[in-house]
């Protein structure tokens, strides 16, 4: 056999430094809650069964098997198990010089610190390996770090925002707008829009920020309010009926959102519009 050699030189010279702080797994009792609390490290939980809820940044995320959520350092959060189907999860806490940059290449964002992939079993296995490698010996620290690198590399690999593919951002944006236009009168949420497109909520957030410079939640609200304004101008429907037609179950909440956008209540807007129309006719 002729002599041969295979080699590969990495393009990036910067080292990645990540250190594990803690790891473990837990099967929670019904309603079991952690927090409100804050951590000094990054903490990732991966749900392997059951359901639970994660509260962060004023938002509550309903989670289930396959979901992974990130707790940012020095951020007050809480999370608790479902009463009927309490969750089980694996977790790992870590710090390091390059952690912030590394996580920015995943689908995690402070606005949406939750991701879902189709590779739950693979992520679970890596977190289990981290835990089973734990111990005081130095070689165990190296082994744990190795499995953590593999785990984080998978999150980056699965990240929709870093796939080396054709940028479908504009196409997704158009589909999202079509979905909103068709279903805004129903009680749809950002989760429903993301599900229809087949993307994560964090990916949907980036799509809207890139194409509209606002979040999908803000876009949805503004669309609903614009439609309600047309109903105020063109119909004799009551405020409650208009609120319902625009996808709002609560007329008071509808009025609050409308006033925030236009500086006047729906009834006040309707009255001013009709007076203006009368003056034009007169």
TrEMBL record:
Any one Gene Ontology molecular-function term assigned to this protein's record: DNA-binding transcription factor activity
Gene3D superfamilies the record matches: Homeodomain-like, Regulatory protein AraC
Keyword annotations of the record: DNA-binding, Transcription, Transcription regulation
UniProt xrefs under InterPro entries: AraC-bd, Homeodomain-like_sf, HTH-like, HTH_AraC, HTH_AraC-typ_CS, Tscrpt_reg_AraC-type_HTH
UniProt xrefs under PROSITE patterns: HTH_ARAC_FAMILY_1, HTH_ARAC_FAMILY_2
Transmembrane domains' residue ranges: none
CDD domains, sorted: cupin_MmsR-like_N (cd06986)
Domain of life: Bacteria
Pfam families referenced in this protein's UniProt entry, alphabetically: AraC_binding, HTH_18
Matches recorded under PANTHER family: ARAC-FAMILY TRANSCRIPTIONAL REGULATOR, HTH-TYPE TRANSCRIPTIONAL REGULATOR EXSA
Full protein name: AraC family transcriptional regulator
């Amino acid at each position: 056999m002729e002599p041969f050699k295979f080699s590969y030189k990495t393009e990036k010279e910067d080292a990645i430094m990540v250190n594990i702080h803690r790891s473990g797994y837990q099967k929670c009792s019904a309603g079991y809650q952690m927090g409100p609390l804050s951590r000094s490290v990054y903490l990732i939980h991966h749900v392997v069964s059951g359901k639970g809820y994660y509260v962060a940044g004023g938002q509550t995320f309903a989670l289930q098997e396959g979901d992974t959520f990130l707790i940012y350092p020095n951020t007050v959060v809480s999370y608790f198990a479902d009463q009927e189907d309490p969750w089980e999860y694996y977790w790992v806490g870590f710090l390091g010089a390059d952690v912030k940059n590394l996580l920015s290449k995943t689908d995690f964002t402070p606005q949406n610190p939750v991701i879902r992939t189709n590779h739950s079993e693979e992520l679970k296995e890596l977190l289990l390996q981290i835990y089973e490698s734990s111990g005081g010996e130095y070689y165990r620290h190296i082994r744990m770090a190795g499995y953590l690198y593999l785990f984080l590399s998978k999150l980056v690999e699965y990240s929709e925002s870093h796939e080396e593919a054709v940028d479908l951002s504009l196409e997704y944006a158009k589909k999202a707008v079509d979905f909103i236009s068709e279903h805004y009168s129903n009680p749809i949420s950002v989760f429903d829009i993301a599900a229809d497109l087949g993307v994560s909520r964090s990916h949907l957030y980036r799509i809207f920020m890139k194409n509209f410079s606002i979040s999908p939640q803000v876009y949805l609200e503004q669309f609903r309010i614009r439609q309600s304004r047309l109903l105020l101008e063109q119909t004799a429907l009551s405020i409650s009926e208009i609120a319902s037609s625009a996808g709002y179950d609560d007329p008071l909440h509808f009025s609050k959102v409308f006033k925030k956008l236009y500086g006047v209540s729906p009834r006040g807007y309707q009255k001013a519009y009709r007076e203006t129309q009368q003056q034009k006719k007169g």
